[in-house]
Design brief:
The protein has 16 helices and seven strands. The chain is α+β, with helices and mostly antiparallel strands and 372 residues long. It folds into four domains: 80 residues, Single Sheet (N-terminal domain of TfIIb), CATH 2.20.25.80; 75 residues, no CATH class; 43 residues, no CATH class; 151 residues, no CATH class. The chain has a five-stranded antiparallel sheet, with no helix packed on it. Strands 6-7 form a two-stranded parallel sheet. Helix 2 packs across helix 3, helix 5 runs parallel beside helix 6 and helix 7 runs antiparallel to helix 14.
Length: 372
């Protein structure tokens, strides 16, 4: 079979692609060009999808370069071999899209199938509903609420073009009321809340920032009590401090023990007082059994996770009580040999980067007047 049709859509631009909707399943097979006299045509090849997957039914389309609305469609082969599939022409879809902007899908469907020449091109009412949903999705600025606000700012001339979150707002006020905070003589001790730390760093670049120890203690305790026993590398290691506090605990009994007895762990203030004058740090470390002894090694294998957490926290505190950074580095080499592999990685990933905000040697000799 060989059939040829000439189609001229005229000025109806919306119908230029209707030749693709001939109720057969096609796949592209190439393209090219041909010249007849002084007239050039763009040639498109399509092969019908058939059961045998052979080229038993083809379609060649010739589009005029001078007039894209003028084209010739040539069918070659056995039409019976083609797989039929109802496909709504582009021009009909454009008409549906225009109607569903103001009319309900049910009414649009009834209007189109009642005496319309393209009634046989419409699949069902669900197709109209889908086009309506597509229109509604296009009206949404985005699925991100903050971006919606940002995008609205370009459209509305009276829209507020600047907004500030609480930490930034707070530091702006502090900078206005007390600019002396940034004179290099002040320090601030925080709980490692990133939004506040970043806001203070932005508005007060000369303000020295330090971290509380008690929050560090609790983070280490949670890392031990909440990480899963079966997957220590994945559960505790790759989480930041906030995520560690939020992870669901699988060991309910041990977690309850942690909640009921954690107050015993919160001895930060006591240790801070005893180590402010920390020239005896080495002696304290030996008294607490931080370094390897025969007695220590014999009891280590019997440690529970909570007991190990207490030991690690005491070791971290004594490291932070060093007289200098060099002393801390030396003690760290000796101390981390007693840590398990996962905790070493946790320490180097989440604690060591802020070590200069945690070490007592940073504030030693500053003659600070503490207030809160």
């Amino acid at each position: 079979m060989s059939m040829m049709f000439r189609i001229d859509y005229g000025n109806n631009i919306k119908s230029f692609e209707d030749w693709k909707s001939d109720n057969y399943m096609w796949k592209w097979n190439g393209r090219g060009s041909m010249t007849i006299g002084d007239h050039t045509f763009k040639k498109l090849y399509q092969v019908a999808q058939t059961v045998s997957k052979e080229k038993e039914f083809e379609k060649h389309v010739y589009v005029s370069s001078k007039n894209p609305s003028d084209m010739v469609v040539h069918y070659i082969g056995d039409e019976q071999k083609g797989i039929q599939k109802l496909k709504t022409p582009k021009s009909v879809l454009n008409k549906i899209d225009l109607l569903v902007e103001t009319i309900t899908p049910a009414q649009v469907y009834r209007n189109l199938i009642s005496g319309n020449e393209n009634a046989d091109k419409i699949r069902n009412e669900q197709q109209i509903i889908s086009r309506r949903n597509l229109h509604l999705r296009k009206q949404k600025l985005s699925h991100d609420e903050l971006y919606n606000v940002y995008d609205m700012g370009f459209e509305l001339p009276n829209f507020v073009h600047s907004y500030s979150l609480l930490p930034n707002y707070l530091t702006e006020i502090m900078k206005t009321l007390c600019p002396e905070i940034d004179d290099g003589r002040c320090v601030i001790v925080t709980d490692n809340e990133k939004s506040f730390k970043n806001a203070f760093m932005f508005h007060f670049p000369n303000l020295r920032q330090y971290r509380y120890w008690n929050h560090l203690d609790k983070n280490i305790e949670r890392w031990f009590t909440k990480r899963r026993k079966k997957k220590p590398d994945n559960d505790g290691l790759n989480m930041n401090d906030d995520q560690i506090g939020e992870q669901v605990n699988d060991d309910e009994e041990e977690y309850e023990l942690y909640e009921n007895n954690f107050d015993e762990m919160d001895d930060t203030n006591e240790l801070f007082q005893t180590t402010t004058n920390h020239s005896n740090a080495q002696q304290q470390q030996q008294q607490l059994g931080i370094y390897n002894t025969d007695n220590y090694n014999s009891n280590r294998s019997k440690e529970t996770r909570r007991e190990k957490a207490r030991r690690y926290i005491q070791q971290i505190k004594l490291l932070l009580s060093s007289n200098s950074y060099d002393e801390y580095e030396q003690l760290l080499i000796e101390t981390e040999n007693q840590w398990e592999k996962q905790f070493k990685k946790y320490f180097h990933q989440w604690i060591k980067p802020d070590i200069h905000q945690l070490g007592l040697w940073q504030v030693d000799g500053l003659d600070l007047e503490w207030f809160s």
